[in-house]
# Entry
Amino acid sequence: MATQEKKIQYEEGKKQSILEWMLAQKKGVFAYPLELFICLLSLGLSVYHLYVAYAGSLEAHAFRSTHLAFVMVLCFLLRPLGRASWTAPKNAWFGVDLLFIGLTIAIQVYTLWDLDSFILRRGDLSDLDIYAGTTLLILLLEVTRRVVGWAMVIIAAFFLVQTSFSDHFFWIFYGPPSDWFTIIDYLFMRENGIYGIPLMVMATYIFLFILFGAILVRSGAGRFFINVAMAITGSRVGGPAKASVVSSCLMASVSGSAVANVVTTGSFTIPLMKRIGYRPYFAGAVEACASSGGQIMPPVMGAAAFVIAEFMNVPYLYVALAGLFPALIYFFSIFVMVHFEARKKNLATVPRSELPNLKEELKRGGHLFISILVIVVLMVVGYTPMFAAFWAIISILVLSALRKETRMTPVQIFSALEEGARQAVSVSVACATAGIIIGCVFVSGLGLKFTTVIVSIAGGELWIALVLTMFASLILGMGLTTTAVYITLAALVIPALTQMGVAPIAAHLFAFYFGLVSAITPPVALASFAAAGIAGSNPMQTGFHSFRLGIAKYILPFVFVYNPAIVFVGDWYHVVSAVAGGFAGIYALTVTTEGWMLKRVGWAIRLVMGVVALMMFHPDLLTDLIGWILFVVIMILHWRQTKREGALVTEVAA
# Structure
């Protein structure tokens, strides 16, 4: 068994996979049985999903339950009881983890041993079915505590208790109680509850996209994206910050993870931003905001986007297209803000000689972009996300081998498969536990009552319902993942919004956006805190500046609720008007908050530009026209004044 020192050594070298770490040890891989088992289990999970994607989906219950069993066993090993990390020396609690693993495997064997008989017992459960289902619920809540946190455990437990003892509750939570037989039948025996839509989407689509991202990063795409962004924007005013926005847009659109993207691109861009004069907390905030935008940026949006498609029963491409322009507007707003900040502080630029050469970078890694095009083309043609993700994985393996700089060794490929499986653990657990919440809401009938109450409290006023939904999302987002927040609101709140006349895609995206802004919203702003660690800045100060820089993400949800043309709802001319107005409106809003255009502007122009932003966001062609007239007039007057002062030449050159 590896010594404690060597385990600490592995913790310090996290860029290595477990497989790479074992191969680097002198004793050989068989000297580390626990590490070897985790590695093989992770590889097995990835290979299992690749096989299913190639051969076709298995029976629904068998496929989803096997996925969850893999994930739960991995979780018990990776997040052991009573230890800070699985690399720490074993303690007396290790036996409990082994017991939990044994129970998980036993329940899965029991489920699959005679699957036909298991399915036929739905509605007529045996005592053993109830014991197995109850045990699985307890085990699932335990792994949720380990990888997601107490918040989701408490919420899931509340709904379980409320469904069982609703006659002891009050207000909308009061109602006829459901017996444990009914709850287990719905949550455990059927493809609802634990094995419902969230876990189905995770096992079918999301896992493959996480795997694709892991392989893409291993091929050197992360560094390639950063270098391309630096080559394009690095020599301009605020170049490293702009490169952070561009590279994060490229990288996070594939990975879909805000914190992971902060660590990947931020370790390079944040020191560069600090070097040219950006304050540490501002540099961290830029990276956090840009990285968190990956979850809203097509073609591979965050995991919740796939769940949206399933809940709405529409192709994923429909959701991706709806989210395209709001995402571009969001990144545009950050880009403008970092430019204004650089101008206000008169920051230095990075010499061209220190930057990567764009032609050389494209020659070295440009072919990797084809794998992303494979996803887009296959989904546009009409293939499923599972099919598109599988062939994207195959394409990146083939494409990376075409050039020496991106060619992966067999060890690197297996390491990517291992890492992808481990990255999927927390998302899978969150999806399974979210299924408990959805199942309980359905069994108790709470969802319909919640919708009625929201409509009643709002008094028919949509803005009140939206504000309530916003605060609910922000509060839930402090303790839950984006996917879990969205799923909870999809069951409780979104029906109320659609009942009040909100376009379905706008209602779903509204909850989706406010579920993910928790990554940059204090007091729990994980992406901001991760960026602060790299920047060496105060975490809360970085969080509050992230909130300011990411203001567009708080405003855009209200925009596409009241002006759904921006998410492709309506005639083409309304869509064009909404999108153009969205870009102009967010620019006007940025001028209002930052007090800068070509040079510093006074409060009069800032207030007028604030009015322009409101007019641009309003879904009326007349207000759009008035807004455009004011916008153009102010821009021309400001341009002429700047030209007279001789500052325009340097601004254009930047």
User: Anything to note?
Assistant: The first helix runs from residue 4 to 12. The radius of gyration is 26 Å. Residues 197 and 310 are 7 Å apart (CA to CA).
